[in-house]
DNA sequence: GTTTAAATTAAACGTTTGTTTAATTGTTAG
DNA sequence: CTAACAATTAAACAAACGTTTAATTTAAAC
């Protein structure tokens, strides 16, 4: 867990927002330096290279993510309540780290820079394990259906949100949403409850 | 609907696969020319510029997509069967145009080249309209629930698939999938039926 | 066979790229 | 004060970029 000084963080934050909006290859170190208000040589000086800075950024963010799922377990909640809390956590996390997820998304989908996303893979594995545990708990107590594919539920949760964010211009037009605030509110309310409703319908016996 | 000769198509196809795997900014026109086995000047000669070639490519692909949803309507199917057919269509379409969707995904998410995706937006709108029609048909006949957000169902369908493809390395490890063929089969079988099951649970009254 | 236009080429264009250098300034410790 | 090291700078570097040029080859039309 490396510590960075203020100037290094300036650089990383400027890079994060630019990488997200312009892409890694679409962002020059000169534009990063300008946004971070430092000399272009500082980037190589501090991080070695543009690519190593990307790795540093991803490591910095993903190590932040080591999830505190434990308190969900400790609390006295029904399995369904736990699932709902997990969905809230997923959504707020993705929303809070929008830029990082955008970057990750692209880096994962291209073969160009096959960096070791060990740290990210770890987080994903932890999440999946925690999720599986909750579902099995619900199944054993007879609340959840058993003919389901547990591994494919997180993709449905996260995929729905990511797809909605990726096609934002389309949904803004389709739903008549005009401001940033209204879009965020739609995610917080309608989209979140749609996801919960969907997962609930899939998991829980109706009666 | 512009027609392209064989050499132009060679260029477009080479560009498509490279843009998908390396990104637009990560792909040089020299590498495209090499892959298409043409001189680098041919790209400017035929398309004007690298960027215009991207537009040509997207237009070429999306105009292919003008969906033949109509025959789904004409056939004598229950609303649920229609939904299932639509899901099959979505999935096979995304699978067939994997590269194009990868490119679109990135272009939509960055502010760098705000091209007019009019053609793509049109396809999406048509799809949404057709989908809405089917759902309302099911609701009016009392088969489908009415307390649902129709606009958010396509994001759930497509988002699940796209997320699964984007995080392929993770799911390969998580599910113990080793070959390309096994992965494609998993999509065709398990993933497809998971999506159908999920949407069905959301839509249909249990009994 | 000649004319005309399209296709194709190698070479060069001016930028921009990521990175390095070498010199200078700032800071801290003895 | 000065030695030592970190931080910062402007300038230069070679390489790669997208695009254009000008010359040549190919194909079609008359």
Which helices and strands occur, and which strands form pairs?
The structure is a homodimer of 207-residue chains.
Chain A: H1 6-22, H2 29-36, H3 41-47, H4 50-64, H5 70-74, H6 79-96, H7 98-109, H8 118-140, H9 153-166, H10 168-175, H11 180-203
Helix pairs in contact in A: 1-2, 1-4, 1-7, 6-8, 6-9, 6-11, 9-11
The structure holds a DNA duplex (30 and 30 nucleotides).
Describe the structure.
2 copies of one chain form a homodimer. Chain A has 207 residues and is mainly alpha-helical. The first copy, chain A, has helices at residues 6-22, 29-36, 41-47, 50-64, 70-74, 79-96, 98-109, 118-140, 153-166, 168-175, 180-203. Chain A has 2 domains: 6-58, Homeodomain-like (Arc Repressor Mutant, subunit A, Orthogonal Bundle), CATH 1.10.10; 64-203, Tetracycline Repressor, domain 2 (Orthogonal Bundle), CATH 1.10.357. In chain A, helix 1 (6-22) packs across helix 2. The longest helix of chain A has 24 residues, at 180-203. The radius of gyration of chain A is 20 Å and the shape is globular. At the A-B interface, helix 7, helix 8, helix 9, helix 10 and helix 11 of A face helix 7, helix 8, helix 9, helix 10 and helix 11 of B. The structure holds a DNA duplex (30 and 30 nucleotides).
Radius of gyration of chain A: 20 Å
Indicate the low-confidence ranges of chain A by residue numbers: none
Secondary structure class of chain A reads mainly alpha
The CATH architecture category of the largest domain in chain A equals Orthogonal Bundle
Order of helices and strands of chain A: HHHHHHHHHHH
Q: What share of the residues of chain A lie within helices? A: over 70%
Counted up, domains of chain A total 2
Number of helices of chain A: 11
**Taking all residues together, what is the mean pLDDT of chain A?**
91
Q: Indicate the multimeric state.
A: homodimer
What distance separates the N and C termini of chain A? 50 Å
Strand content of chain A: under 5%
- The number of E-state strands of chain A comes to 0
Shape of chain A: globular
Question: What fold name stands as the CATH topology of the largest domain in chain A?
Answer: Tetracycline Repressor, domain 2
CATH class of the largest domain in chain A: Mainly Alpha
- Main interface by residue count: A-B, 49 and 49 residues
> CATH homologous superfamily of the largest domain in chain A, by name?
Tetracycline Repressor, domain 2
Q: Let me know the largest β-sheet of chain A.
A: none
Protein name (chains A, B): Transcriptional regulator
DNA-binding region (chains A, B): 28-47
GO molecular function (chains A, B): DNA binding
Domain HTH tetR-type (chains A, B): 5-65
């Amino acid at each position: 867990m490396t510590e960075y000084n203020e100037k290094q963080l300036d650089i990383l934050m400027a890079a994060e927002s630019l990488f997200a909006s312009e892409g890694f290859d679409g962002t020059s170190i000169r534009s990063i330096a300008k946004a971070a208000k430092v000399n272009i040589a500082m980037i190589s000086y501090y991080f070695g290279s543009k690519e190593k800075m990307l790795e540093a950024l991803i490591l910095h963010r993903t190590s932040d993510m080591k999830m505190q799922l434990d308190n969900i377990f400790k609390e006295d909640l029904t399995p369904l309540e736990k699932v709902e809390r997990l969905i809230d956590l997923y959504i707020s996390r993705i929303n809070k780290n929008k830029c990082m997820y955008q970057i990750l998304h692209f880096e994962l989908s291209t073969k160009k820079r096959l960096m070791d996303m060990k740290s990210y893979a770890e987080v994903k594995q932890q999440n999946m394990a925690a999720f599986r545990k909750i579902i099995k708990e619900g199944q054993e107590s007879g609340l959840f259906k058993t003919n389901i594919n547990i591994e494919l539920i997180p993709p449905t949760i996260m995929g729905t949100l990511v797809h909605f964010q990726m096609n934002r211009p389309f949904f803004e037009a389709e739903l008549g949403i005009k401001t940033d605030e209204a879009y965020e509110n739609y995610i917080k309310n309608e989209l979140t409850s749609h996801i919960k409703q969907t997962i609930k319908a899939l998991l829980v016996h109706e009666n």
